[in-house]
Design goal:
Length: 97
């Protein structure tokens, strides 16, 4: 689990995975199809951490975040971790503005 927001996080909230920063740019209200509960769709801006890339990336999540896309489509290599050894724990930091 990366983060679990009980209430809508303010725009500008940042999630930092190791040294990759995700910044909340939009929180869109939506109704969950599974149980009809009001929730939010969170839009995060980040950049591909691959050396020499840095391509801007927009990723979506719900209020509970179990994983976030790390790299752009060009550098998505699912079997390879972004940093360090496979299975290494990613450092997670949440910053509220
Ligand atoms: Zn890339």
């Amino acid at each position: 689990m990366i983060a679990l927001f009980a209430t809508e996080p303010p725009i500008g909230t940042r999630i930092v995975l190791d040294d990759q920063v995700y910044e909340l740019v939009q929180a869109e209200p939506y109704t969950r199809k599974t149980d009809g509960k009001a929730s939010h769709l969170l839009h995060w801006d980040t950049a591909c951490p691959t050396d020499g890339c840095g391509k801007p990336l927009r990723v979506l999540s719900g209020m509970s975040i179990t994983s976030l896309q790390r790299r752009c489509e060009d550098h998505r290599v699912l079997t390879k971790p972004v940093k360090g050894k496979r299975g290494r724990r990613v450092k997670i930091r949440i910053e509220m503005p």
